[in-house]
């Protein structure tokens, strides 16, 4: 066999192995029977579909929800258009059930739900709080805001939604040399035990450098480094989280989701408009594929999730969110920090993430 033929054969074999692995991974992630003990809706991938105009949206009014931070409150801060609020996600092979806040609270009566991660988790947590509040505007609520832990309790049902802020999932520890990101340490996981539903998220902060980087060194085992490849660091940190799930989660008591990679829209070349970012974008991309392809972090998540022995459901929001170049605060968040093409307006896209979470739990 010639050298070129051998290389071609090896490349084809690698691609085949990757496709087989991807198939096994998707079976693992999307298999709702592992999550709930019931069969998945036949042939339905909730995350493959398209955005359609829908005048019955949004699900709530931002001015009527007490849980929205200014950075997500686009209508309050002068966004002039509102069509971005009026789209619903339509899976190709089934219909997404409309969110019912009372039904959600009845199913989770007396239970504790926790979002764990960065400001994209905060985005989703505030969205779910608003969606439930809009369904039951007169139900009694109480809230707590601490440094890294926030909560909203719907007291008539005994349901508490927690938000635990930890952008890397793994720990940042102050040592004599400075702030150290410890890729093999996850002591903060002690705060996540005893929950009935956990929704994890991470990636957004792994790319931060300079003054916005909250650590000075990164440690991996006995090694301490000034920096390392960020995708490699993300993989190592996520692998530590995966071990935590396997060691600490009892599937008979706790359901686990991973939120998936939320995309940014700073680079218009990704959707064939190289001179643009999300500012001024007023409608989603049509169709069901994103020209720029999947972010590299999504492959890392897939790789890590394929190693977990306990059932974890991937809320695969990446592609459907990539299509929503119109849904960011851009300059209409109250933070005053320039153009935000990372987070999402509320009401808006995170409401769909929560509808998908609801669907995965009830379908």
UniProtKB/TrEMBL annotation:
Chief place of localization: membrane
Pfam families in alphabetical order: PC-Esterase (PF13839), PMR5N (PF14416)
Top-rank lineage group of the source organism: Eukaryota
Molecular function terms, GO-annotated: O-acetyltransferase activity
Topology of this chain in the membrane: Single-pass membrane protein
InterPro entries: TBL (IPR029962), TBL_C (IPR026057), TBL_N (IPR025846)
Record bears the keyword Signal: yes
Domain Trichome birefringence-like N-terminal residues, every copy: 43-95
Keywords, sorted A to Z: Membrane, Signal, Signal-anchor, Transmembrane, Transmembrane helix
Signal peptide from the UniProt entry: 1-25
An example Gene Ontology CC term for this record: membrane
Compartment(s): Membrane
Domain Trichome birefringence-like C-terminal: 96-359
Family label: Belongs to the PC-esterase family. TBL subfamily.
Protein name: Uncharacterized protein
Organism this protein belongs to: Manihot esculenta
């Amino acid at each position: 066999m010639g050298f070129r033929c051998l290389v071609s054969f090896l490349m084809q074999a690698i691609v085949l192995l990757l496709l087989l692995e991807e198939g096994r991974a998707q079976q693992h992630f999307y298999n709702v029977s592992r999550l709930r003990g019931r069969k998945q809706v036949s042939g339905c991938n909730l995350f493959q579909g398209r955005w359609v105009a829908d005048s019955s949206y949004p699900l709530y009014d931002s001015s009527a929800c007490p849980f929205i931070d200014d950075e997500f409150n686009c209508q309050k801060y002068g966004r002039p258009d509102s069509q971005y609020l009026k789209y619903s996600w339509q899976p190709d092979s089934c219909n997404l059930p409309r969110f019912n806040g009372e039904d959600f609270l009845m199913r989770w009566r007396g239970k504790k739900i926790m979002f764990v991660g960065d400001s994209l988790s905060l985005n989703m947590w505030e969205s779910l709080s608003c969606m439930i509040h809009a369904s039951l505007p007169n139900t009694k609520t109480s809230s707590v805001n601490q440094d890294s832990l926030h909560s909203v309790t719907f007291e008539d049902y005994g349901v508490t939604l927690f938000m635990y802020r930890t952008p890397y999932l793994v720990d940042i520890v102050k040592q004599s040399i400075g702030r150290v990101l410890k890729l093999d340490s996850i002591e903060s996981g002690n705060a996540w035990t005893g929950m009935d539903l956990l929704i994890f998220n991470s990636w957004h902060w792994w790319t931060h450098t300079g003054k916005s980087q909250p650590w000075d060194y990164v440690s991996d085992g006995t090694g301490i480094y000034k920096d390392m490849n960020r995708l490699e660091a993300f993989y190592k940190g996520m692998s530590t989280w995966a071990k935590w799930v396997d060691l600490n989660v009892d599937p008979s008591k706790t359901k686990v989701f991973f939120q998936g990679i939320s995309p940014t829209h700073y680079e218009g070349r990704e959707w064939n408009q190289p001179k643009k970012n999300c500012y001024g974008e007023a409608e989603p991309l049509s169709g069901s594929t994103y020209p720029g392809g999947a972010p590299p972090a999504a492959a890392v998540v897939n790789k890590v999730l394929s190693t977990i022995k306990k059932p974890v459901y991937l809320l695969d929001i990446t592609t459907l969110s990539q299509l929503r170049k119109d849904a960011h605060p851009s300059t209409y968040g109250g933070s005053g920090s320039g153009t935000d093409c990372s987070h999402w307006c509320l009401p808006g896209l995170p409401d769909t993430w929560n509808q998908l979470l609801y669907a995965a739990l009830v379908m």
